[in-house]
Amino acid sequence: MADSIRTERLVLRRWREDDKEPFAALNADPVVMEHFPATLSREESDALAERIEAGFDEHGFGLWAVEADGEFIGFTGLSVPRFTAPFTPCVEIGWRLARSAWGRGYATEAARASLEDGFGRAGLTEVVSFTAVPNVRSQAVMRRLGMTRDPAEDFDHPALPAGHPLRRHVLYRIRPYGIRPYGIRPYGIRRH
Q: 62, 66, 90, 67: which is closest to 77 by C-alpha?
């Protein structure tokens, strides 16, 4: 497995100890965490970073730490959801970026590189993404990636109680034919 993926503007790489501080700041930002049940404490954020890094060894893919101009800006990549739903088991693509990185196309660029790696090197046949209904920004990224939604597959997230405003989630899917073929590297992706 490669230790990093480079796109035209970004580096997707394995996690380092010095990522934990900016990751904790990102996870403590109520605007970034608007579509999650709560912000995370430093301890919760550090534990999440450690679980993310362990996922690479467990699955052969994971949520990459993302750098722009040499600065950690968040994560993008693939993971295996830990809850049970009608569409699990599955592989999910997700992202979480610092507010300073929003509106620049970084989530889409990094997610395309992650999908290329997942469908190519990891040999995945399908990837899903899901988010709370109000999270229209992430849904726009999903559509830009070529993912499609069947409203009949929308679901109530089992980790959230009935009546929670974020409980209802939309589900998007993509198969390898939904992106450019592996190997073309349309975004200047280089593996290291």
A: 62
Q: Please tell me whether the overall predicted TM-score, pTM, comes out greater than 0.70 for this model.
A: yes
Distance from C-alpha of 188 to C-alpha of 5, rounded to nearest angstrom: 10
Written as six digits, the tokens of 134 are: 């109000």
Tell the residue number behind the tokens 């209904």, with chain if given: 133
Cα separation, 76 vs 73, whole angstroms? 10
Candidates 174, 74, 92; CA nearest to 131 is 92
The three-state secondary structure class of 103 is coil
Whole-number Å distance between alpha carbons of 36 and 183 = 35
pLDDT digits (tens, 9 = 90+) for 97-112: 999 999 999 999 999 9
Per-residue model confidence as pLDDT tens digits over 126-170:
999 999 999 999 999 999 999 999 999 999 999 999 999 999 999
Which residues on neighbouring strands pair with residue 76, listed in sequence order? Answer: 64, 95
| Strand stretches in the chain, DSSP E | 4-6, 10-13, 63-68, 71-79, 92-97, 127-132, 148-149, 155-156, 168-174, 190-191
Contacts 24+ apart (CB under 8 A), 39-47: 45/20, 46/20
Do 64 and 76 meet the contact criterion of CB atoms below 8 Å apart? yes
